[in-house]
Design a protein that fits this description.
The structure is a homodimer. By secondary structure, chain A is α+β, with helices and mostly antiparallel strands. The first copy, chain A, has two domains: 71 residues, Arc Repressor Mutant, subunit A; 143 residues, Endonuclease, Chain A. Chain A contains eleven helices and eleven strands. In chain A, strands 4, 5, 6, 7, 8, 9, 10 and 11 form an eight-stranded mixed beta sheet that branches. A three-stranded antiparallel beta sheet of chain A has the order 1-3-2. In chain A, strand 8 and strand 9 form a beta hairpin. In chain A, helix 1 crosses helix 2. The termini of chain A are far apart. Chains A and B meet through helix 1, helix 2, helix 4, strand 2 and helix 5 of A and helix 1, helix 2, helix 4, strand 2 and helix 5 of B. The structure holds a DNA duplex.
Amino acid sequence: MFSQLNPQLIRNLERLGLTENEAKVYVGVVSLREATAREVHELTNVPRAKIYEVLKVLAKKGYLEVRQGSPTYFRAVDPKQVIGKIKDEFINCAIEALDQLNELSYELPKTSPVWCIQSEWGIKNRIREILGGVKEELIVFSSSPEFLQEFEAELKKLEKTCRITLIVNELERFKLLPFEFRETTKEFTDFITNIVIDGIRYDEEFFIIADGKESIGVHSAGNKREAVVIKLPVVCYMQKMIYDRVLEPSFIKKDLKSV
Amino acid sequence: MFSQLNPQLIRNLERLGLTENEAKVYVGVVSLREATAREVHELTNVPRAKIYEVLKVLAKKGYLEVRQGSPTYFRAVDPKQVIGKIKDEFINCAIEALDQLNELSYELPKTSPVWCIQSEWGIKNRIREILGGVKEELIVFSSSPEFLQEFEAELKKLEKTCRITLIVNELERFKLLPFEFRETTKEFTDFITNIVIDGIRYDEEFFIIADGKESIGVHSAGNKREAVVIKLPVVCYMQKMIYDRVLEPSFIKKDLKSV
DNA sequence: TTTATTGTTACTTTAGGGGTAACAAATGTT
DNA sequence: AACATTTGTTACCCCTAAAGTAACAATAAA
C-alpha cells in the first residue's frame, strides 16, 4: 500500500506534539474509520511490533476508542474534538508561560541604545512597535515598495496625528501606494544601494526616524536581512540631517524649516 | 547563583516547542533584561559552551535582539510578542491539520456497535456527544454526584426538550443537585457496586440510555476508569429493562407505563 | 494437528539534545 | 611586550526517546 499518508499532515501533527508513529497511526485510523492493528500497519508502514504500543498510548490520550476482541478494533475520535483538545491544552500552556514571564522582569528597563535584529518577524514586529509610539514626527525612507506596503495601515493611521515625511529613491515604483512621496537625489540613491564593507555589500531598504530620537534601519547584507535599532538622539539627528540633505532641493526648504 | 529559573515555566516553554536550554536561556535574558552570554550562563547554569549557539538560534527565531561587540549583548523581545507568535503558528498548524484530517474520511461511517474508551477526557467528550444527540428520552443512572455534576448544564438543557429519568443509588448524596431523582432498590445498589470478574472489582459509576438505542456506561476497574459505548438497540432495551426493575416500586408504575 | 494471525518482548540503531574539555581569538593588565 | 583573563568556537562523549528488527508465545482458523 502506498497510500502515502500526506507527509505534510504528519509533520503538522508532530508539531502538535505527537511522535511520528503516533501521527501516522492516528491518520491511519482516521482514514480507515475503524480498523485492526494489522490494517493500520499495512496502511501506514509503521512496524507491526510498534503499532500496539502506539495504539494504546493514543487510546489513553483519548484520541482513539477501542473494541476489545481478537483482533482488537480501533476507531478514531472525531478529529475536530482531538485537535480542539490539543489546541486548548497548548493555549493554556501559553497563557501560563506568559504570566510567568511577565513576573520575571525584576529590573527596570535597562534600555540600551543600539540593537540588532536578525529575524524577519522580529524586524517587522519592532517596526510596528516603534510606529505605535510615534507622537509628533516621523521620517521614513524606503527603497522597497513591497516592504513599505506592509505598514500601509499603520502609516495611514499616523498621518492623522503627526507629521510624516516619506522619502523614496524612485517615485515611479511607489506610485501605487496611497501616500505623498519625496524623492532622494540620484547621488544618494546610488550611494545607498551600493555600500560595501569588508567585501560584503549592504543594501539599505528601509529607514525610520521617530520623533527625532529613535530610529530603525533595515538593510540586507548578502542574502540576509537585518535591522538596527538606534535610540541615541545624537545619531538620529545626524541621520535626520543626512536625509534632509538627500531630498531633492525643491522639497527641502518648504517642508523642513518648521522642524 | 541559585535563582532557580521557575522550573514550571521552563517546562511550559518546552511544551511550546523550545528545547530545555533554549527555554532557560530565554528566561535568563528576560530576567536580566539585557545581558552578555556569560551573565546568562551564570544565571541559568546552561554550559557556557552551549550558550552561544542557543542565543544565535533564539535571535534567528526573533525572540532576542542582539548588540554586536565583545562581549555581544542580548536583549529579550517582549514575551507577549514572542508567546503570541508561537501561539499563532501553533494555531495555524492545528487548523491546517484539521482540514487535512477532514479530507481523509473516504469511507462511510462504519459505525460499530461497541466501543471502549480509556481516557477521562474521551469519556466525558463522548458523553457530551451522546447527550447532544438525544431526541426524546434519556435515562441516566449515577452513583457519583461529582461525575453527574459535570453534565449538569447539558442535562438542564435537555429537560426542556425530552423526558429525562435520573436514577441514583442514594438520594441523600445527590440532594444538592437541582434535579428530581429516583432511587434504585437496595439490592441493585449492592449488586452494582460489587461486581467482580476475574478477580477485578468493577464499580459502575454512570450509565446513560439515549432514545432507547444508544448507551454509554462508565465503570472503574481497579483504579482505572473506562467507558463502554453500546449502540445495539437490543442490548439497550435489556439494560433499560434492568433499570426499570431496579427502581423503587413506588416509582415504577407511574412513570414507565408510558414507555 | 497444522497453519496463520495476533499480540508481546527483547534487542539494535539513530538522532537530538545536553554536558565537558580544550583551544584560538580578542581584550585587559602589569 | 608579556602575561592573564575573557570571549567565542570546536570536538568529543553521554544519555534518552523513538524508530526499526527479529524472534516468540498465545490465540484463532484451517
